[in-house]
Specification:
It is a single chain. The chain is built from 9 helices and 15 strands. It is an alpha/beta fold and 281 residues long. The protein has a 6-stranded mixed beta sheet with strand order 2-3-1-4-11-5, sandwiched between helices. Strands 8-7-9-6-10 form a 5-stranded mixed beta sheet. Helix 3 crosses helix 4. It is globular. The structure holds adenosine-5'-triphosphate (ATP), 1-O-pyrophosphono-5-O-phosphono-alpha-D-ribofuranose and magnesium ion (MG). The site of magnesium ion has 2 residues, from loops. Its EC number is 2.4.2.17.
């Protein structure tokens, strides 16, 4: 039985559930369902606060969990990243009123509000800066206006939240984050976990690639293969037409229209792109 922690709310919740659903795990019926048992995959999905997931996984109570890299570092829990999941991409940055500070070293003796006290504390120690860390639960951007802090350290994606309160980022990013699958440091692989990783990798490939089919004159096959090399070489089959072959290859979704144009330019016909629904590589 695979026991997997999934964020029950917040920025990672939707994308994590969608990815698990695409990987064939049973979705929860409504947001009040805290545990989903899925006999088909022999798994139990536990919906927990994203911040707590690294703690549960680090304690060894669960086999794996989905959380943010920033939350994993912040927790200090003995858990390792197994794979990056490509969503919840953000940076963790300092921000303040425009023109107040230029770098972390300007924060010596200042008050910094954050929900990520562990991550911020480690960074300040590494940079040799002594500052007072004000730990808040969320909406930390408001702390400056309320006179509780001189600067904040928070998650930034589009920067809209900061702009809306008249703050600006400064200095180098403290960390780059994205959703990750984690497990307890040093834990053994289980068949259930291997299956989950294989399925999630399959979802990523299905999202990132399309299948391209086309017909081409046999004498142009080398040129065609250089345009569509596929993952392990394309499938080339005889066509029921003298001097022609049919080719099938996986192509990165990004840029596949250009690939189709190039194939057309070298004389390919019936060039089709189709979505991949699921895969195991
Ligand atoms: N706007 C965003 N864009 C991308 N990733 C984000 C965004 N906000 C948060 N995250 C990421 O999502 C993860 C969980 O953060 P989230 O804000 O959802 O948790 P939380 O603050 O505990 O929950 P909530 O905000 O619902 O109280 C973190 O790894 C964070 O980096
Ligand atoms: O750069 P942006 O695209 O504006 O996104 C970043 C914001 O998103 C998150 O807020 P959330 O809604 O999770 O609220 P919280 O701060 O209370 O956690 C994060 O804490 C930032 O405030
Ligand atoms: Mg949040």
């Amino acid at each position: 039985m695979l026991r997997l922690a999934v964020p029950n709310k917040g920025a990672l919740n939707d994308a994590a559930q969608t990815m698990l659903k695409e990987a064939g795990y049973r979705p929860r019926k409504d947001s009040k369902e805290l545990v989903v048992v899925d006999p088909d995959t022999s798994s139990e999905l536990l919906f927990l606060r994203p911040r707590d997931i690294a703690v549960y996984v680090g304690e060894g109570t669960l086999d794996a969990g989905i959380t943010g890299l920033d939350m994993l570092y912040d927790s200090g829990a003995p858990a390792d990243e197994i794979m990056r999941l490509g969503f919840g991409v953000s940076t963790f940055r300092f921000a303040a009123r425009p023109g107040t500070y230029a770098s972390v070293t300007d924060l010596q003796g200042m008050r910094i509000a954050t929900s990520y006290a562990g991550l911020l504390g480690k960074h300040l120690a590494e940079m040799g800066v002594e500052a007072r860390v004000i730990k808040l639960d969320g909406a930390v951007e408001t702390a400056i206006h309320l006179g509780v802090a001189d600067a904040v350290a928070d998650v930034v994606e589009t920067g809209t939240t900061l702009r809306n309160v008249g703050l600006e980022v400064f200095g180098e990013p403290i960390a780059h984050s994205e959703a990750v699958l984690i497990r307890r440091a040093g834990a053994e692989d289980t068949p259930g976990l291997r299956q989950l990783v294989r399925r999630l990798q399959g979802v990523q490939v299905a999202r990132d690639y399309v299948m391209i089919d086309y017909d081409i004159r046999a004498e142009r096959i080398d040129e065609a293969i250089s345009i569509t090399p596929g993952m392990e070489g394309p499938t080339v089959s005889p066509l029921h037409r003298e001097g022609w072959v049919a080719v099938r290859a996986m192509v990165p979704r990004k840029g596949h229209q250009q690939v189709m144009d190039r194939l057309w330019e070298i004389g390919a016909k019936a060039v089709l792109a189709t979505a991949i629904f699921a895969c195991r590589l």
